[in-house]
């Protein structure tokens, strides 16, 4: 993960979702493929993800610019995955686009 | 969750952590108490959390202002919990303070 200091800006996409109780194997395949695909996109800085046993989960991806986020959102294979997400993978989700103001770690 | 539109600003604290493999019951008590306590703080807008079976997790809390985030960070009972976090609950964590630029949901 690159630092959000100096001239290096960083943006985060917070994707909060509730999984529908179907298509577990197919979901895993598509989700893994999206991580793989996102990782190769321009401006990608990292991703982290967690899901509770009840199906609620959070994925945060980090990007160099808002344009990089827009380009990823419009990627053809990602658009197809988004459609599957609305049709069968998720019962609900929320997306928040954020500018990282500062960070620290332990 | 209030919208981040018009004059309503919203800030997010992304807390990514790896649990140490100890103090499970005590951790749950402190974590639950921190959610309860945060929910009563000025400017608190919401919180969501998820953890994987391997102990990695993400908690995102939402606030009206950076000052609200700072005040919560300096809350005496929260300071004590943060110390416990570094001493025994987490093997590592990262914190990112973000400004929510826009959001949408399904």
Could you characterize what this model shows?
- Two copies of one chain form a homodimer.
- Chain A has three helices and four strands.
- Chain A has 106 residues and is an alpha+beta fold.
- Chain A has a single domain, classed as Alpha-Beta Plaits, CATH 3.30.70.
- Chain A has a four-stranded antiparallel beta sheet with strand order 2-3-1-4.
- In chain A, helix 1 runs antiparallel to helix 3.
- Chain A is globular.
- Chains A and B meet through strand 1, strand 2, strand 3 and strand 4 of A and strand 1, strand 2, strand 3 and strand 4 of B.
Strand order of the largest sheet of chain A: 2-3-1-4
Q: What is the fold named in CATH at topology level of chain A?
A: Alpha-Beta Plaits
What is the end-to-end distance of chain A?
Answer: 14 Å
User: How does the major sheet of chain A shape up?
Assistant: 4 strands, antiparallel
Shape of chain A: globular
The residue ranges of chain A in which pLDDT falls below 50 over 5 or more consecutive positions are none
Helix content of chain A: 25-40%
Based on the coordinates given, report the CATH architecture of chain A: 2-Layer Sandwich
Number of helices of chain A: 3
Q: Strand share of the residues of chain A? A: 35-45%
Largest interface: A-B, 34 and 34 residues
* Average pLDDT taken over every residue of chain A: 93
Mind telling me the C-alpha Rg of chain A?
14 Å
> In total, how many domains does the architecture of chain A comprise?
1
* Oligomeric state of the chains present here: homodimer
Question: How many beta-strand elements of chain A?
Answer: 4
Q: What is the CATH C-level name of chain A?
A: Alpha Beta
H/E element string of chain A?
EHEEHHE
Structural class of chain A, by secondary structure, is alpha+beta
